[in-house]
Amino acid sequence: MLEDITFEGKNDNETLLVFTRRHWFVLFGIVMGTLFASFLPIILIVLLAPIIIGHEILFMFCWLIYIMILWFILAYRLTLHSLDTWIVTNERILDIVQIGLFNRKISELHLESIQDISVNTKGLIESYLNFGNIEIQTGATAQRFMFDKVPNPLDIKDAIMDAAKSKEHDTKQGF
Amino acid sequence: MDTIIPYIGLAYGLFLLGYWTAIAILLYHLHRFGLGRHTKRILYIVLAGSIMLTIITSLVYLKL
Question: What is the structure's pLDDT at A140?
Answer without folding.
Answer: 63
